[in-house]
Structures are given as C-alpha cells and as structure tokens.
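ARCHIVE CARD
Drawer: 12
Card no.: 0347
Subject: one protein chain, sequence and derived structure
Cross-reference: see card 0346
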Amino acid sequence: MTKKTTLTYLFLSALLILVSSCSSTKEISSWRKPETQQKKFQKVLVIGMINSLELRTTFESKFSAALNKKGIQATGSLAFFGDDLLEVPENIEAWKPLIAELKSDEFDAVLVTKVVGVEGKDSDSGIVRYYNEFFASFEEDLMKNKNIYSEEEGFKDFQVHQVASNLYCLCERDLEEDLIWKINIELKQAFDSDYLIEEGIRLFSKKFIEELKEEDLFIEKN
C-alpha cells in the first residue's frame, strides 16, 4: 500500500466515523409485545400529538405520505376525521363512534407520535418529559398525554428532540386496543423555520420506517 493510498484510506475512515457520530437520527429504545411475530396490519391512522394545528397537519400529512410511499397504507387523523378530532375526546364513550368509523373503513392500527424530550441549544436549557409509556389503548394514551405541553411551549429553542411513536392494534373485541410496538427516536434537528420543520419530519420518517420495516408489522402494497 502506497503512502498516498494509506492517507486516502485514513481520511475516508475518519470521515466515516465523523458522519456516523453526527447522525441526525438514532434509535433510543424500542419494545414489542411478546407473541406478536405473526401479527400484520393493513391500514393505520396516524395521530400527531402537537398543540399547533398547522404543525400537526404538516406532520400527519408528510408522515403519512412517507409511509404510503413505502407501501404502508396510512392516513392522518385530521385528513380522516376533519373537525371531529381537533380536540381529544374526554372519555371512552366519546371515542366509541370514532372507533366504529375507523373499523368500518378497515383501519386495524393507530400510530400515536409525540415529542417526549428536548435538549436546548446550550447546556443550561432543555426540557425532558417523563410519562408512562405503556397504555392499554391509544385513547388512553391520547387522553392522559394531551396536555404534555402547555399552549405557549414550542420547539424552536431546541435542537435535540426525542420522539416516541406507539403502534396500537384495533382489535376485533370492542375497546380492546393493544400496544403492539413502541420506539423512541432521537432527532438532532432545530425546528426554527418551515424548512427545518419539514426536514426534521423527513429525517424522522426515514428512520422510523427503517425500524418499522425491520419489525415486519404491515402487509405492504406493491
């Protein structure tokens, strides 16, 4: 090996290490319900737990589009329910007609995504959210975490976000939705412009879909 070749090899190795260490997304943790290896879904409702209606619309639309592009049939909650799901229902009774509507349209899964932790742009600022990550149903998840952020809080002052996605089954027995799979992803991305928000959604979607496909949880369309 010549000196020039050696230097080139060392440079490429160092570059690879640098790129890996600066990765924009990484899996923090994941969990799957035991004995669900044969479980496969066909159609999923995507719900983004975000106070801003504009940001929620953008997230659900782009995330659903990314899933559909990879063969996973997905629809955002606002696109499907419209004004009926602008606010989270207060009790299980209020959920029943919504669940019936989902099942009649052949949805068999619900995916709930929320930001659960952020790190500030400097070492002295940051917010970390702690919450019970395991729920019997997606309705319980939404009802108990709908106030995880106050109206005045946003994400513009932060550059590291931890995003949690919980996948629930709409089971055949009434109101027996189960948490099937959950994943926490760290996203190194500021959200202080429309472009960066869309880039953050793209990066998260890419990493999420990579991990989801490893689980083989959906019957994919050709």
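Annotation on reverse: Residues 44 and 76 are 9 Å apart (CA to CA). The two ends are 47 Å apart (CA to CA).
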